[in-house]
Amino acid sequence: VQQNLSDFELVLVQKNKLANSSSRYENSADPIRVNDGVTSAYMIHTADGDPMPWVMLDMDQPHAVFGARVWNRLDNSWYKRFTQISFGVTNNPAVWTSFNSHLFQLCFYYTDVPTVADNPIKVNCSKPIVGRYFAIYKNITGLSSSQQYINIFEIDILAMAKGASLCVSSAQSSFPAASSALLTRWSGLKSPRLDCIFKCTAQPACLFALVIPGNGDCLLFGPSGGLAGFIGGSCFRCVAVLE
């Protein structure tokens, strides 16, 4: 399954992956249901008193994760519980046996209070992150006891397609991870991967560059929220998406 996002195709990571959660509310669904393709029948619900609710997926192998979609609970205003949620990715296998939020790279921090119309909730990582393990985890600080849960039905993980070439700059932001946005697209480059890095270096707002397989087009991405707190960088780490 492929999805179009920001004018290039992403792959929906294959379903029915192993899943786990921090806790389980009485009679709620097994965590594996969070990735079975069913978006409204089996609710994953963390338990009372959970100090950091989380749900984690093992994607079997590393993927260059670009974003995710979450099907939220919609009844009785409980959809409002989906807030102060971090989306993280890591390649460290230690998290599977002992969850540690500090071992995840932050893809996105969701602080909105969603409505029914926001279902599914969609996020793009500030930068694509290569890793095998994907998790959402909740900061319960300042939330009432009735809001300190994760209750969702399904997670889709969106990753870059096989053959893409990704170059991520050393640029950092002083604000929590936010969405990335397409800045510009270049076609007809003689040396797409190298020239794409140069294009990104010359663009003050560029966070990462993506070379599309087949046509060799170069896509440059930057922070969607503008340049406040943005510090540019000219050092790049490149990976080829093999799977």
TrEMBL record:
It comes from Macrostomum lignano. This is F5/8 type C domain-containing protein. InterPro entries: BG_Antigen-Binding_Lectin, Galactose-bd-like_sf.
